[in-house]
Amino acid sequence: MSQEMKSQCSDEYHSSDEDMDEDINNYYEDMGDDNDVNEIQEDDPESFEFELLKVEDVERLLNESVETLCKAINVAPSLAKLLLHMQKWLSTDVIARYRQDSSKLLRDSRLAPTNVVQVCNSPFTTCPVCLQRCPAEIMSGLTCGHRFCNDCWQQHFAVQIQTAVSTGIECMFKDCCVLVPEDFVLQIVTNPKIRDKYQEFCFRDYVNSHPELRFCPGPNCSTVIRATERKAKRVVCKECNTCFCFRCGIDYHAPTDCDTIKKWLTKCADDSETANYISAHTKDCPKCHVCIEKNGGCNHMQCSKCKHDFCWMCLGDWKTHGSEYYECSRYKENPNIANESAHAQAREALKKYLFYFERWENHAKSLQLEEQTLDNIKKRIEEKVMNNSGTWIDWQYLLDAAFLLKKCRYTLQYTYPYAYYLDKGPRKSLFEYQQAQLEAEVENLSWKVERAEITDRGDLENQMDIAEKRRLTLVRDFLEL
Amino acid sequence: MANIAIQRIKREFKEVVKSEEVAKCNIRVEPKNDNFTELRGEIQGPPETPYEGGMYILDIKIPETYPFNPPKVQFVTKIWHPNISSVTGAICLDILKDQWAAAMTLRTVLLSLQALLAAAEPDDPQDAVVAKQYKENLEMFNTTARHWANVYAGATKREVECDSKIQQLKNMGFEEHKARVALSTYNWNVERAMEHILT
């Protein structure tokens, strides 16, 4: 906790009762950020510099880039914007390439056609879309020379915007990929709802194509994060408290890298299906307890491992059943060795996966439960302060402990996918050793946080220090950037 | 239906009717109802392909937002082709999806479909079974496609061996189309096809 924060809250301590409630809330909300955001430490492998932008800030930023480009190469602003969007907002690169070969850059960015069509100058022409003869003044077109009547353009835009296409809207001609710039669309589309939608979608596209920007993935959050490097680092949105990876946009996942965590999450989604299937379509042999899938209609089962004959329905010994099922015995005569080993392998793979998955799930659940502990701590501190037993500053270490616990357990949860994909070897042994160390300290800390009031403050703070050190050691050794 | 869609379709009819492809009996299109939302198309199997001599009927549905959205086209005539479902007749063709342009017409669609019959794209398949056969055993694919063209699209070239194998399964009491699908799927191996039908 910084000195500044302390003085700030002791000031607030003297304000009136009503204000105080609000202050308490604000104070607690700020706490989370204070612990892990923007505090750059030299040797912290997770430190990352970023800023939070509002929509207006982003618009200003984008417009500045557009203006700079317009000044440098003298093109219309809406063309410049699309050019930057297509070239990932690399202004200096765009300027250099434009000066070298402007028509090539425009062609590559789909702003100019590969071959231009001669524009017909007669006062009446047939619109190739509605096939109506139209006066030339209600026809318009892009640099490619394909001209259509404005009614057709308008409907084309409406249909495209309805399907969330915005910066990607193309000319209506067959095989013509020339993109329609913003001002052309806005000139023709009059419906205010469609205009708003269009501008909203464009903005989304611009942010997505900008290497320094990323939308906060939090629900209904419009914050945009800006960082100069697109690294797999932790970003916390101050508006909605969502904590995510700047590189891939999903939940922060150190020490696991972006590709691995995606693989793991897909696997979890797929394998829960597999696990469901196994529980729905398999039973364990009543004698040797190997898992058996029923792949035929016959209820006379023979375990492929121990050759025990039993009835699928009642799991009882088959000998006690009548002879009317005898015709099904061909399954018995054809024990499939190859399948059996494949099955055993699959079973083993599943076992391994379930081992990691259970722990991953368990820590996720613990995180949820500890969220309640945190709420209780907040409540109890409030009570204590109201009863004049100490000030917030006196009890603040309890909150710090709860936040630190959350942080450590979060990392611990994300060590499991990492371990699952790690090849056997000394590196895995080291990882698992450190993981076990971290796990032990996290559980110790959790124990002490739950019993915070009867734990000595020094003892608790010592435990916090140990847990965080374990966490940092693991992250420092295994977080690959 | 929106005004522009009807106007377009009516004008397109004139275009298709006038075009030289119609004169050569290569493509045809006619309305199924008065409001032009459903049409029936026909394309001739292109020469020097397994579909030569066959006539393929298409089901064309015109969306409200035509021509800003593509027409929905499906094969009614059964066909063995990597980009067309042998079960439903659904077509995998870029211009019927995201590569559609408002300036395209029914005529260009039908001609593109004809071109698709002449040049399959097995790497972008609609029917995985057919595409696999196309890539692994082109000769077998050609035989199967010719057989389907003969049976369903009226092409004259008969595949005698295919016919006799189907007859063989029919004599055992299996339904003809089911037998054909199974045999086509299992490279005309009678035992495997039978096994497939029975499971």
What are the key terms here?
A: 481 residues, Herpes Virus-1, 4 domains, 13 strands, 8% strand, extended, disordered N terminus, B: 2 domains, four-stranded antiparallel beta sheet, 44% helix, 12% strand, BRcat_RBR_TRIAD1 (chain A), transferase (chain A), RBR-type E3 ubiquitin transferase (chain A), IBR_dom (chain A), ubl conjugation pathway (chain A)
**How large is the radius of gyration of chain A?**
32 Å
Termini distance of chain A?
Answer: 28 Å
Largest interface: A-B, 21 and 14 residues
CATH homology-level superfamily of the largest domain in chain A: Zinc/RING finger domain, C3HC4 (zinc finger)
Written description of the protein model:
The complex is a heterodimer of chains A (481) and B (199). Chain A folds into 4 domains: 1-36, no CATH class; 44-252, Herpes Virus-1 (2-Layer Sandwich); 269-339, no CATH class; 355-478, Four Helix Bundle (Hemerythrin (Met), subunit A) (Up-down Bundle), CATH 1.20.120.1750. Helix content of chain A is 56%, strand content 8%. Chain A has 16 helices and 13 strands. Chain A has a 3-stranded antiparallel sheet. Chain A has a two-stranded antiparallel sheet with strand order 2-3. In chain A, helix 3 (55-73) packs across helix 4 (77-86), helix 5 (91-100) packs across helix 6 (102-108) and helix 13 (392-413) runs parallel beside helix 16 (457-478). Chain A is extended, with a radius of gyration of 32 Å. Mean pLDDT of chain A is 80; it is low at 1-22, 27-40 and 322-338. With 199 residues, chain B is of the alpha+beta class. Helices cover 44% and strands 12% of the residues of chain B. A 4-stranded antiparallel sheet of chain B has the order 1-2-3-4. Chain B is elongated and about 55 Å long. Chains A and B meet through helix 7 of A and helix 1 of B.
